[in-house]
Amino acid sequence: MSLRDIRRDYEQRQLNFNDLNPDPFVQFQQWFDEVIASEWNLDPTAMTLATCANDKPTQRIVLLKDMSADGFVFYTNYQSQKGQQLLANPNCSLHFAWLPMERQVTVEGAAERLSEAENTAYFQSRPRASQLAAWASQQSQFVAGRDKLDAQYREVEARFSEQETLPLPPFWGGFRVRPTQFEFWQGRAARLHDRFRYRYASDNWVLERLQP
Q1: What is the CATH class of 3-120+171-210?
Q2: Does the annotation place 43 within a ligand binding site?
Q3: Cβ-based neighbour number of residue 11 at 10 Å
Q4: Where in the chain do CATH 2.30.110.10 domains reside?
Q5: pTM for this model (two decimals)
């Protein structure tokens, strides 16, 4: 089968102006709750994070760990590629692809580092193995092989073997993306999808329909 012949039509739902909450955070929570309640809730917190530094855009999947009117939170190694890019240019985009439900959400905004207290509280809530991995991995740096990575993990495991609680790595923590724009996309038949954009202007969210 040719790639050009792989297609499906989207006919599950429609999205109208009156269906949308005037607050995009409330609207996001409603859609997220529907994903959680559905049979398609595999990795519902997975989101594509797009960053750009030195005119080079990059993307990767990260996991949403908190969401409120203050923004969307995820955690990483601050010395990783995405960490360094966000510190150089905080403007970024998040993309949620809930394709079995024929829905997508895009969030644009600026990222800021979380406080040490916020980072510590979350880090200590993680499974111990994940805490050890955060200490062991020099994220985005070259490694000679899997054996080397596993050895780094064993070294960290031995180092903290006598400690019940691991300290927060100084190079690890979270970012909060404070949105300035949302787009909610609902697939429709014949590629005439429903698209609505919320943009923040003059201390208010402006909601408008976009052509597909």
Answers
A1: mainly beta
A2: no
A3: 11
A4: 3-120+171-210
A5: 0.94
